[in-house]
Request: fold
Amino acid sequence: MKKISIVYLFIVFIFIFYHESHLPWFIILLLAFSTLIFTLLLFLFGYGLFRFLFGNKGNLFFEILFLSVLSVVLYTLGFLEYSGGNLFLLIVIAIAFFFKFTNSILYYRISLIGLSILSVGLVTFYYLQANEKFLFYYFNQSKYGEIEKDFTKWKFNESTKELSNSEIPIKFKLPESFQFYNPKDLDLKEKTGAGQIAGIISI
Reply:
């Protein structure tokens, strides 16, 4: 368990630094520290849950309840918004129950643990996003006023290519080949980090 925890935290740590490499080092360290604590607590909770689950051998009710909760978590996080996510979940559950009914207990447990780690990873990623957004508002509070200000109110003039935000306030003109996507028009996959606030500019 100790080795698995270390490997998992190392992977999360590397991912945070890669994903947040566009931010200042101080912010990256803050995000990494808080996210690692959060994901470790979540990981330990999952470990305790598995000890309880596997301690009640043959209790199909607890196992179905566990899979149902994981499915709800994945649905809430938007993982099941795409057909690929639904197919993946169905395949994993089908494989898990195949191992269950063929008495391949080791592989059955590995399937459940894999699905659990995926859920923990997704929850951790959403926590990282929320944390990044909070830090953005917090460090810009003194510069732009109260934290309640909505920085997502962008206006884009298609004809003049002018992008403005009355809450900051800021106004600039995009090059002719550039296009702006408003935060409110982005789907879940595109709403990562600053994309929730500033939108996406693409060529």
User: Anything to note?
Assistant: The chain is about 65% helix and 10% strand.
